[in-house]
Amino acid sequence: MHTVTRLLADAPAQLLPARQMMAFTLASHIVLVPFGVALPFITLVMHHRGLRRADPAAMLLARRWSAVMAVQFAVGVVTGTVLSFEFGLLWPGMMGRWGDVFGVGFGVEAWAFFLEAVLIAVYLYGWRRLKPWTHFWLGVPLPLAALLGAFGIIAANSWMNTPQGFTLDAGGNPVDVDVRQAVFTPMFGPEYWHFVVAMFLTAGYVVAGVYAVGWLRGRRDRYHRLGFCVPFTVAAVLTPVQFFLGDNIARQIYHKQPVKFAAAELVWDTDTHVPEYLFGRLQEDGTVKGGLKIPQLDSILAGFTPDTQVTGLSSVPAADRPTATQATIVHWAFDIMATIGSVLILLALWYAWCWWRRRDLPRSRWFFRCAAVAGVASVVTVECGWITTEVGRQPWIVYQNMRVSEAVTPTGAASLWTMFAVVAGVYVLVLGAFLTVLLKMRTRWRLAGTAGAQSPESDTPYGPRPELATTGPAAGPTTPPAAPGRTGEGTE
């Protein structure tokens, strides 16, 4: 406790509000990222199915998902822009010294953002205005632009974890920058693929969870079946893949960031035959309180043998490692992420078994209850992943090159707390508006499928609405055709 008090006393007063603001905005923005990265792909999968099979239910789902995609992108513009400004406003020490080294990642992300905005506009405009397959192929670059944006962000973050591609002059400033090495750092590959698969998996489970709730409420039509099956299949296929990617990135952290690994596993002393703790809390004296202790398992997981030596937190000075509280936060985040991932594998196997045996969905209501919860659980794992990555690197903002306290703004703490309150208020309003719009869209779409209204089974985004293509005296032979893209837009 004395060590923690001393470290807090040595830190600038503005460090706490700066970190809290960055954590809040990042945690809020990351909720939207799975939809920005993966929803375009899932939408195009449904779009392709609708075109190839002339399936109006699939086409309606694709169009509605594209509307959600656009709303999410608009909200993401706000939250992402705030984050971009915060890097410069809150951490000028890092950006001023290291911006020339790793800033290319943010440049790539910015270009990908503008490209994605144009492609989303074209894709939305194309419904009812372009030929069906032309419209589909114009949407195909959308997932690629989303992956390019993820490339830029992960390139910057992986550099912060394993910085390279520069040399330091006598004043400690980076010179002789090698952009290729700065982008493709040792942690880039493991981080990128782990992140991308997490985004696709999360988006799949969240979207499928919406239709799982509808299924539990008795909506068993083909529209809800398709809305559940396509995204859930994407997520179920990727779940075991993510399990192996997660194991790989943990092993890479063991080799390249041993102190972060020690924090995630609550390892105090460097040793072999190290036990694995499931949950538990690290104390200031290095003991672990609570949790389930499994002898030797941590060494086995790290190097496939109990004789594997694991670096402990005490191997470096207290000023160069996470505090006991930070280590406990990282450990819990890592264990929650691993636990949820393991349960999702069981859910995916349940789905695969029923599909293999009967070519049908599971019949148990408990399966759909679990599927409905899986979306929320996946978002929790994404949050836990970023906590593990960022808190585990403490006290470094650039691993072993710059501390967080050296990068923070000189702006007074009072001003930062005020700014934090304003940002939090804006985020609450923006995210509240986002949820309100989604709920109104859901209500409108549900009314469109009720008795007496347009059926989701027969609607199609290409051509006139079914109710306008009527015959008989009321319509008359001279009734003009519906203008593509305009008639009936209120029911979409």
Automatic annotation (TrEMBL):
Keywords: Cell membrane, Electron transport, Heme, Iron, Membrane, Metal-binding, Transmembrane, Transmembrane helix, Transport
Gene Ontology MF term list: electron transfer activity; heme binding; metal ion binding; oxidoreductase activity, acting on diphenols and related substances as donors, oxygen as acceptor
Superkingdom assignment: Bacteria
Gene source species: Kitasatospora indigofera
GO terms (BP aspect): aerobic electron transport chain
Name used for this protein in its record: Cytochrome ubiquinol oxidase subunit I
Keyword Cytoplasm in record: no
Coiled-coil ranges (or none): none
Residue stretches spanning the membrane: 20-46, 67-89, 101-124, 136-156, 192-214, 226-245, 329-354, 366-388, 416-439
Localization of this protein: Cell membrane
Residues in the signal sequence: none
Family matches, as PANTHER family: CYTOCHROME BD MENAQUINOL OXIDASE SUBUNIT I-RELATED, CYTOCHROME D UBIQUINOL OXIDASE
GO cellular component: cytochrome complex; plasma membrane
Membrane topology: Multi-pass membrane protein
Organism classification: Bacteria, Bacillati, Actinomycetota, Actinomycetes, Kitasatosporales
Region named Disordered: 450-492
Protein family per UniProt: Belongs to the cytochrome ubiquinol oxidase subunit 1 family.
